[in-house]
Amino acid sequence: MIRREAKPIALLAGALVKRPEGETSAQGEGGWALLGLLLALGVMSIVMASAIVPNVKVQVQRDKEAEMLYRGDQMARGIARYYNAGVLAGMQLVVPPPYGYLTDLNKLRDGIKLNVRELKFVRPSAMIDPMISLEWEPVRARDPRIMKYLQAFAGETQIPIPQQYLLIAGPPQRLEKAHKPDEPTGGSEEAPKPGATPSPGVKPTNPGGDPDDADDDDDDSEMNDPLKHLFEDSTAGSSGLPIVGVAPRVKGKALRPLYGLDRYEDWIFMYVPDTTQLRPLPRNPGQVSR
């Protein structure tokens, strides 16, 4: 059996296909150049597509973020109107509205009845967070995010935080009284011995042992929390606290900050009015403001 040697593919192809008369080798190489150009264009299109896809994703996020800001503002205004019988004004929680505190966001959409009027506060579309197409997370009184948001809001807008909003953000803080340089602090006085009778005309200091009651003034009443009645019912838990705002459920870094807060988990939507829109704060829970 005679063994034949394999010929190169190029020589075999040249033997099978006759080159037309007058065709030069340069013209044959032009086909390979065209093929290379097509391959280069294909690679460039893939690279350009991979660069365009992130831009489209960012644009979609930017559009959803703008819609979230719009709907969040509508929710914040609706909550403020709920606490003021349909009027857009500042919130206060010392005295509830005639129809009770807002503990369920659905009341904003479904509405309430006030005498013969039926009040609705937001459109159904505003109830959905457009970033993830889910309902908003309720922000209730004394949520830790409220104070951070109020400080960022005041720093950005230069609008002072109303006192009643500070009360919603956290319990009242004791104010330390500064002593004058020539005012005795009482630290140099000798404490009376146990069982000793005080001298005539000298009032015993702190007979009950409570340092907060050592003075005659009533500054201890500054620590009374006007909203303590909201926390006395422990059976309701946090779900029974009044809703004062909403927050997105999405987490992560935002494309543009909200009052300097650049992460979604720090964002809340809560209506903060100008000081001219504030109503007087009732002195106690039993007094209704007019």
Task: Describe this structure as you would to a colleague.
The chain is an alpha+beta fold and 290 residues long. The chain has a domain at 39-173 and 220-277. It has five helices and eight strands, in the order H-H-H-E-E-E-E-E-H-H-E-E-E. It has helices at 9-16, 25-82, 106-110, 144-157, 163-169, and strands at 112-114, 117-119, 128-129, 134-135, 137-140, 243-247, 253-258, 261-263. The strands form four sheets. A two-stranded antiparallel sheet has the order 1-2. It has a two-stranded antiparallel ribbon with strand order 3-4. It has a two-stranded antiparallel ribbon with strand order 5-6. A hairpin with a 2-residue loop joins strand 7 (253-258) and strand 8. The longest helix has 58 residues, at 25-82. The radius of gyration is 37 Å and the shape is elongated. Residues 8-13, 185-214, 216-222 and 285-290 have low confidence and may be disordered.
